[in-house]
């Protein structure tokens, strides 16, 4: 039987564990929670829902999703499969991690380019209940993608090199993660 340690020690609080995007996600998330509460209160308590709350809550959820993805890139905590790493040698594992990171960078750049091309077209589209263009929402998405590109490029440049792939000393070569 496997013993579970419920007495995990918490690391002491450090501001270095958080980036600017953490604060931004915090503010947008609680703004969304406030809008959802207003929606609930006006619908079920007052019996007359405000028309704009559902649409705004939906757009804020999209913003939270993309802004939170920047945190995932920074922490290198996006979903991945570690099964293959167990059966490869450290140099091959380091090379595989480097290739995956470069692939992610190419994906983020492509996603940013497509968003940049769509952004001017969305200015003509207006939100249903507010007199704002959809380009505001796409601007937040583009900002998030730019942050992801910069974070991923920094990680590829600082954590990986082809020389470290040959040695097997890439950042995740031994299965460790920051």
TrEMBL record:
Alphabetical keyword list: Cell inner membrane, Cell membrane, Membrane, Transmembrane, Transmembrane helix, Transport
Domain called Tripartite ATP-independent periplasmic transporters DctQ component: residue spans: 32-157
Transmembrane segments: 24-44, 56-73, 94-116, 136-154
InterPro entries, A to Z: DctQ (IPR055348), TRAP_DctQ (IPR007387)
Predominant place of localization: membrane
Similarity-based family: Belongs to the TRAP transporter small permease family.
Function per UniProt: Part of the tripartite ATP-independent periplasmic (TRAP) transport system.
Subunit structure: The complex comprises the extracytoplasmic solute receptor protein and the two transmembrane proteins.
Name of the protein described by the UniProt record: TRAP transporter small permease protein
Biological source species: Halomonas cupida
Taxonomic placement: Bacteria, Pseudomonadati, Pseudomonadota, Gammaproteobacteria, Oceanospirillales
């Amino acid at each position: 039987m496997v013993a579970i340690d419920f007495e995990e020690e918490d690391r002491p609080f450090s501001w270095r564990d958080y980036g600017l995007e953490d604060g931004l996600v915090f503010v947008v998330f609680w703004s969304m929670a406030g809008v959802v509460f207003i929606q609930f209160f006006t619908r079920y308590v007052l019996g007359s829902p405000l028309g704009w709350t559902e649409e705004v809550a939906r757009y804020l959820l999209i913003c939270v999703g993309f802004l939170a993805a920047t945190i995932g890139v920074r922490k290198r905590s996006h979903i991945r499969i570690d099964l293959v790493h167990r059966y490869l040698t450290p140099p091959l594992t380091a090379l595989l991690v480097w290739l995956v990171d470069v692939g992610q960078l190419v994906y983020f750049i492509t996603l940013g380019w497509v968003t940049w091309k769509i952004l001017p077209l969305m200015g003509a589209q207006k939100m249903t209940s507010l007199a704002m263009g959809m380009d505001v929402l796409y601007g937040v998405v583009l900002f998030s993608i730019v942050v992801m590109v910069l974070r991923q490029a920094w990680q590829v440049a600082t954590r990986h090199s082809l020389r470290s792939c040959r040695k097997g000393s890439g950042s995740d070569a031994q299965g460790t993660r920051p």
